[in-house]
Amino acid sequence: MNDVTPDPWRGLRSLTAARVALGRTGASLPTREVLKFGAAHALARDAVHLPLDAAALCGRLDAAGWPSVRVHSAAPDRATYLLRPDLGRRLDEASAAALATDGAPPDLVFVAADGLSSLATSRHVVPLLQAVRALAPAAWRIGPVVVAEQARVALGDPVGERLRARLVAVLIGERPGLSSPDSLGIYLTWDPRTGRHDAERNCISNVRPEGLPYPDAARRLVWLCNEALRLRLTGVNLKDLSHLAVSSG
């Protein structure tokens, strides 16, 4: 016998991964939904603590034709990273020294950072970059992909500053949700340097097949990069009008 009272809005469940129209048993949730919630919560917690396999990611990047270099923030381990966000925004001394360059300044540098979900970084960085490559102008000078461990978004600022990049795009694992433990965010900053703040960045969020697909994210990112290079700015003064460019051809 089924004692679950169905929710009249259950048709919405086919349209979203959000926890809606779960039904009820008396005044409580059905047992299956309680168990699903517990499993989703466990996946979110695991995503936060799972270490990034930086060597494996560098291997996949190199195989796909993306030279890479590894760096580490000033947070020595995961526990410190979670307790001291400020250390995740700074490079350790060895990484800062390794990023010194005498070559031509790149137009764009990608930073693949673990953030709060290394699962997102491991899964989505390589296919996203391949989608970007298909759309990026051939004239762009793109630096090596910097794979960063124990990193916050603002770690892209000293990375870009050391490499003298015009733009830095940080591809970082976002805070896991109960339906999205592997969501990747992109943070784009013009003229990166230590001390930049979030209002000076553009953000593209929820990059993953179940959210914003790679081709769509790549189109938005390439459009923003072109406009940032043209206008010499990012952030609140650079509005994302990429959808208008697509609709107008």
Any chance you could write out the topology, listing elements then pairs?
Blueprint: H1 31-49, H2 54-63, E1 68-72, H3 78-83, H4 93-98, E2 108-113, H5 118-135, E3 145-149, H6 156-163, E4 167-173, E5 184-190, E6 201-207, H7 214-231, H8 242-247
Parallel strand pairs: 1-3, 2-3, 2-4
Antiparallel strand pairs: 4-5, 5-6
Describe this protein's structure.
The longest helix is centred in the N-terminal third of the chain and has 19 residues, at 31-49. Helix 5 packs across helix 7 (214-231). This protein is an alpha/beta fold. The chain starts with 30 loop residues before the first helix and ends with a helix. It contains eight helices and six strands; from the N terminus they run ααβααβαβαβββαα. Strand 2 (108-113), helix 5 and strand 3 (145-149) form a beta-alpha-beta unit.
Fill in the keyword field for this structure.
8 helices; globular; 15% strand; alpha/beta; 249 residues
Structural class: alpha/beta
Order of adjacent strands in the largest pleated sheet? 1-3-2-4-5-6
Q: Based on CA inertia axes, which overall geometry fits?
A: globular
Task: From the alpha carbons, calculate the radius of gyration and give it in angstroms.
Answer: 20 Å
> In this structure, how is the largest beta sheet organized?
6 strands, mixed
SS field, number of helical segments = 8
Query: How much helix, percentage-wise, in residues?
Result: 25-40%
Order of helices and strands: HHEHHEHEHEEEHH
Termini distance? Answer: 57 Å
The fraction of residues in strands falls at 5-15%
Quantity of strands, as a count: 6
- How would you classify the quaternary structure? single chain
Spans where pLDDT lies below 50 across 5 or more residues: none
Kindly report the average pLDDT value: 90
